Structure formats: structure tokens, C-alpha cells
């Protein structure tokens, strides 16, 4: 079932003569059959395409308006970014930090088209990709499988894909119920499209069409702040407000690039800030405050729910 947290609920169709890969997903993705003569601009369907000069069979979301969108980690923009993206010095990577000189394990809670996860995995990070849209997740699974099955891949490149672990799930639920330690949660939610903004890239346009803005990022951030042991990193457009959270925690630092800001919530820094006051003091002031003000009672109650009150 499609998640109800995203704004749009676009149906994905399948044509009678669709490729085998798409046919195999027909039931799981609840694809509706589409006669060829019904095609129009706002329809999306699942099929395979073979990019020029290749013999690949890539699962793609197709539309008349945008053409096919598929994921290929070994060619095009993703491969270019791997080679020329700036390595360990790029803002995304710096935002992840290091634990005792080793790379932390990342949970990418908004995997999308996998670009950020791929950058991280290609630089040595172990990345768990979480994507709740079954459509987008199917494209990711297809791209990962194709990459792993590519003949003659060198061992270094193969290792990148072995470090990428995909789950089609809602991240807030996954994180809340995860029995294992999570070091870093990374979030890059879809934000509402601005009318005046230059047209988004083709991949993002597709996500905007079939998924719409993510309206529940606050819930995801709440769970991430409760669970992450090292840091939470949130990608935001430059100038955008921070994402709210139930604890009223502000980012402890940020890494900026020309169009993007990575808000960092360092768990150690947050714990240090909070250790300035201890629970005893809070209870003392709570008793006093009870006598005077109802609003203080509310704020003390909130403090008690704080994830770092230990
Ligand atoms: C802006 S895109 C992320 C792009 C990604 N960083 C990349 O490099 O391709 C946001 C994606 O996060 C997914 N998403 C948002 N909230 C989620 C949640 N709570 N659980 C799982 N996926 C989520 C959306 O379905 C969408 O595909």
C-alpha cells in the first residue's frame, strides 16, 4: 500500500506489452493496466528501457511529458559525481563526520534516487537506504541488482554496492523499531515546490509528480533524534527554515554549500548542553513553578520527554 504521508497519490500503470521485469512487479505494486491509445501527458507507467550504446535492461518510470526515468549508478551523472564530486571534502561527506577516525554507519532515511547514498558508499561509508515509495524503491532495487550483476566490475566498485542495503519502508517506523544501534541518520525530505524556482532536475520532477512533498518530516526527525547515537544530518535548501522537532532542539552546527545547507544535530554536543542542568534541579524548579504558572508545568513536562534526559 502507498504511504498516505505524501501529498499526491499518483497511480502507476503498466502496458499490456511491458517488459518482464515490470510484469513481475504488477501485483506487488498494484499497477493498473493501460491501453496504448489512452496515453496522455500526466500518466506514468512502468516499463524497461535500453539506454543508448548499452545493452542494459533498466526498469524505468515512463511518461510522455518527461520520458523515462531510471537509476544507473555506473554511468551518467552519478558516475560523474563519483569521479569529480570532490571526494571526502564535499559538504555532504563532511557533514557526516568521523567517530574515532573511522567512518560512521549511515541510515539514509530518505533514499530517493540513491544519489547521496551512492556518493557516501563510494567513499567507504556503509549505508542503509530507506525509501517508502514502492515505485522509487523498485527503481533502486533494479539499479543495485544490475550493478551487482555487471560483468567485469572491479572489486573496489563491487564493494560499493555491497555497502548499500535497501529497505522499502517508512523510516520513522523503521528507526523507532530498530533493535540495532544507529550511528547517523541522514534526511533529505522533499520540500514543497516553489513557483518561481527554476525547473527541478528530471529525477526530482518525477519525485515531485509521483510522491509530492514530504509532509511528515518532523515525525522522522523526532525518531532520528531519539535513536541516533552520533548525529542526525538534515539536508535543506539554502535559506530554508530548520525542520521543527518535538524537543525544540536546534542544530548544533551546519555545513553549507552554494545551494544547500546540512543541519547537524551532534548527539554528544546536545548531551553536553543538557548536562548543565540535572534532573534534580528541574524537579525542584518544577515544584516551585507549580505554585506559580501552568505554562512552566507544560515546559517541564516536555523536558522530561527529552531523549537525552538520562
Ligand atoms: C528529496 S528525495 C531524496 C533524494 C535523495 N537524497 C537522493 O540523493 O536521490 C526524498 C525521498 O525521501 C522519501 N521519504 C520521505 N520521507 C520518508 C520516510 N519517512 N520514510 C521513507 N522514505 C521517505 C521520499 O519518498 C522521496 O523518495
TrEMBL record:
Gene Ontology cellular component list: cytoplasm
SUPFAM superfamilies, per the entry: S-adenosyl-L-methionine-dependent methyltransferases
Reactions listed under catalytic activity: guanosine(1516) in 16S rRNA + S-adenosyl-L-methionine = N(2)-methylguanosine(1516) in 16S rRNA + S-adenosyl-L-homocysteine + H(+)
GO MF annotations, alphabetized: rRNA (guanine-N2-)-methyltransferase activity
Residues where S-adenosyl-L-methionine binds: 131-132, 188
Compartments reported by the entry: Cytoplasm
Location, primary (coarse class): cytoplasm
EC number(s) on file: 2.1.1.242
UniProt entry tagged with the keyword Endoplasmic reticulum: no
Keywords, alphabetical: Cytoplasm, Methyltransferase, rRNA processing, S-adenosyl-L-methionine, Transferase
Domain of life where this protein originates: Bacteria
A family per Pfam: SAM_MT
Family the entry assigns: Belongs to the methyltransferase superfamily. RsmJ family.
Function field: Specifically methylates the guanosine in position 1516 of 16S rRNA.
The protein's name in its UniProt record: Ribosomal RNA small subunit methyltransferase J
Organism of provenance: Thiomicrorhabdus sediminis
Species lineage: Bacteria, Pseudomonadati, Pseudomonadota, Gammaproteobacteria, Thiotrichales
